[in-house]
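Task 17 of the worksheet. Students: predict the tertiary structure of the chain below and write it out as structure tokens. Keep your answer in the requested format; marks are given for formatting as well as content.
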Amino acid sequence: MNTPKDDRTAPQGPSFGFRVARRIAFLAALLAGILSVLMIANFIQTKSVDPLHSVPLTRLMARLQDNPEDVSLKEEIRALDLLARKAYFTYQWQLRTGGYLLLAFVLVLLLALKYMSSFRMNLPDLSREAAADESGKPALLSRRAVLYGGAALFLIAFGLGLLSQSDMKRGGLPAAGKAPAAADFPGLEEIRSNWPGFRGPEGNAVAYVSGAPTDWDGPSGRNVLWKTPVPLPGHNSPIVWGKRIFLSGADRKTQAVFCFDADTGKILWRTELNDIPGSPADRPKVTEDTGFAAPTMTTDGRRVFVLFATGDLACLDFEGRRIWAKNLGTPDNHYGLGSSLIMYQDLLLLQFDQNPGGRLLAFKAPTGDKAYDQPREVAISWASPILVDTGRRTELILNANPFVTGHDPRTGRELWRVACMQGEIAPSPAFADGQVFAVNEYARLAAIKLGDAPAIAWEQLDDLPDVSSPLATRDFVFLPTGFGTVSCLDAKTGKRLWFHEFKDGFYSSPILAGDSVFLMDMKGVTMVFKAGAEFQPVSQNALGERAVAIPAFMPGRIYIRGDKNLYGIGK
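Model answer:
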């Protein structure tokens, strides 16, 4: 019996190619989803625990700022820095590889979907509603949710990967083998082998170099290596780093910085700074004794910093190119701005005591960004700060009316104050053997013993400086005055050991070099005498022109700024 043939075509299942493409699409979507979740989790974890700014590394860097010469600490930082570097590059590799893989999976998924759509059994059109059968609507919405959710997940993961790599390019680690950027400042030994600011290293009037000449004569040229005219006037003192000498000068029309070759006196470059934003159109009123360029410059061995009576503050590189500049506001100062600049590690510090009140300012050396602005309850002054190692910490010491104060140079926080000054303060403080010596004419010389509670150990009321700053050693304190006298006091008791009258007065401050004191009067004659309990003169050396700046000392050399010329002294 023959079975009648069924003419209807039997239903066809999905083709082999379609099934393979569907499996590939499913696998690609699954792997892309897993990778997206891992990348998002990795991003969140890295943001919460940043290998570049770990707490241990930050703590070690803070310790290094207080002890820049600690070799073992530097090695510990380098070891931890190496671990952070490995974590950094591992994270970078993970992000880069993950991004590439995610992009590859998404491309495979799209190609597989495109291949599936070419077969008879097309993918459902999710953009159209099933008109005849409402029972398929929940499934359709579910597929849409999966499709859109997956796409959003892929986009988020890929975007975070791009963002993270961009962040790392902007804030990566320094070159291998170098200390972190926060430690990129000279150590104490390097500072003391140069003359980086007012009254030398740390501002404390001590030359740590040897071989200072004690015999020269400007008019005859004896032991004068060179003499170079300075194009603009200024009462600031020369600063020296290596073979470069820096000075500033200004008048009512122009303000500029000059760089001289230390061996030849040749001017290497001149940079004018007349277009600083915010600078006053009219120069402020100043007296002849102060002028428009009284503050002494400073350097960190990488850059030089300058301040003018206009309140213009600028940073230049060693080739004279401007790095940054700003105006601090026109100083309210009836004589003219006098306080000099000083460096603490990577901070530029300024005692800005104006009317109606004082401020201690700090700027980040590389950028000029303000690090802090500490208000001070003092009157106007012209003194400059000094940095001292008390044995427990580094302090920034300031002299003003009515307080002598100690500050944390990193934060500006006041650590202590002693009320002992009055009048218009010009002399800067001195420090030796745990004591600060602050002085002003018509006030007193106060010897302040540092410790848990700093207090006055003794006072001296006679023959006090009005402009020149004191010089202190472990045993002696030397006090020059504007009317030509020099007193030597016992540093422990304040007892006067000797007193000598010179022909002319002193605006320049004394410097200790070896076992001798160098002190230049207003006629440009440098007195050299022994730092001892009796007055023992060594020599008197004429420059040949008026001078009020402080000489700069380098090995076997002295550099002196006169009213008109810069001199190199040596054999």
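Marker's comment: The chain has five helices and 33 strands. Residues 16-122+136-183 form one domain.
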